[in-house]
Amino acid sequence: REAKQAGRAGTAAEVAEILKGKGTPKTLLAYVKKVRAGFLTENKLGSWKKYGSFEKLLEAFLTNSRGNLEDVPLLSITPDFVDKFEAYLRKQPNQRAKDSKAGLNPNTINKLMRCFKAVMNQAYKHERTLKPESNPFLNKNYADIPVTKDKLTAEEITALSEVELEEGCLMWHARNAFLLSYYCAGIRASDVIQLKWDNIKQGAGEARLQYQMGKNNKLKDIVLVSQAQEILLKYAKKGSKPSDFIFPYLDNKAKYAKALTLAERKALPTAEAKKLFDAVNAREVQINKQLRKVAK
After folding, report:
1. Hey, what long-range contacts does 274-277 have (CB within 8 A, 24 or more apart)?
2. What does the CA dihedral 183, 184, 188, 192 come to, rounded to 10 degrees?
3. What is the mean pLDDT of residues 89-116?
4. What is d(CA 71, CA 50) in angstroms, rounded to the nearest whole number?
5. CA 89, CA 109: separation in Å to the nearest integer?
6. Does pLDDT of 97 surpass 90?
7. How many other C-beta atoms are found inside a 10 Å radius of the C-beta of residue 79?
8. Mean of the per-residue pLDDT values for the chain?
C-alpha cells in the first residue's frame, strides 16, 4: 500500500509475479521490464537487446540525486514527462564517438523514443485504467533523419582485396567475410556469420547462395559470382557437413548449430538462442575491429 501511494514499484516478490505474467505492472519501469521479458521468452533477441538500452537509460533518468530509484505510475506519464526524458537523452554522451563531448546520435534518440512510445501504446491497449485519449504519445512521431553514407569505390575494393594478410589470421577472415557480403548483394554481417554449407546450392551450371534474412525473414537467392566462389573455396574442406558453418566464427559442436533454418533457430530454447545471439554479436564486433586494421 505504501509503495502504491508513493508511486513506486512493488516488492521484489510482486515484481517477480509480474515478470511471470501473473501480475499487472502499474509503474513505468516495471512495465518496461515486463515487455522486455516477453521478447526474451519469444526469442525476439534483437528487440530484447534494443529495449535493454532503453530500460537502462530510463532507470538512470528515474534515479534521483541521492541514488534512489523512483519508478512512476503509468497514469502519471504525461507529454511533459516524455519531453523531459527526450531532453535527458540529448544530454547523454555518445560513448562510441571519438569526440568525448559528442552527444547521442539523433537517430539513436529517435530509436529510444520509439521504444518508449511502443511500451506506452501497449500499456494503453491492455490497461483498462488508462484511457486511450490520454496517451502522451498521441501526437508524437520519431522518424529517422536520412543519413548519407560514404561508399567504397571499385578501386578501394580492389585495394582491400589485395592487402597481403597471413592466411588464417583474424584480419584475413574478416576481409573474406566482408568481401563475400559485397559480392553477394550486401548480406548483413550477422547473416554471413551464420551461413552454412547447406546454403550453397548447385544447379543449372551455376552456384547459388540461398538463405533467409534474419532481420525480416525474406528469402534470398543469389548467383555466386566468381569472386564469391573463390572466397568460399578458401573454406571448403573434406568432410565438411551441410550443417557446418562456412566461416569459423561459431561453434559447430554447439547445440544451436543443429538448427539449419531460420525457423529452427527461432525455435531454439531461450538459453540456447541467447548463446547464439551473443556469439553472433561478439563476432560482428570482432569483424569490424579487424576490418579497421585492414583499412589502415
Report:
1. 274/40, 274/45, 276/250, 277/45, 277/46, 277/49
2. -90
3. 87
4. 21
5. 7
6. no
7. 14
8. 89
